[in-house]
Fold this sequence. Notes:
Largest sheet: 3 strands, antiparallel
Number of strands: 5
Distance between the termini: 37 Å
Shape: globular
Number of helices: 4
CATH class: Alpha Beta
CATH superfamily: YlxR-like
Strand content: 15-25%
Low-confidence stretches: 88-92
Amino acid sequence: MEPNYRRCLSCRCVAPKQEFWRVVRIHPSRQIKLDQGMGRSAYICPQSSCLSAAQKKNRLGRSLRTSVPEEIYQILWQRLEPSPWSIQRSKD
């Protein structure tokens, strides 16, 4: 079975959807969620350059056709920061 491909809304890179973060506008409530739910979706690369461009130019908001709360961007920035556990394991 062929993988499902998606496009990053920032850098326009095409890759299997497992390589992206999914941001969803839930259908009836218009609430924004990450990685779960049914509704309008947007995909973004897990890279700081893509995330900063998406935030600066409001690409997530335009793609989802709604305003994106600042908390969503904060959660995505936290995902980019490596945890102390992963830094320690990479040194071993």
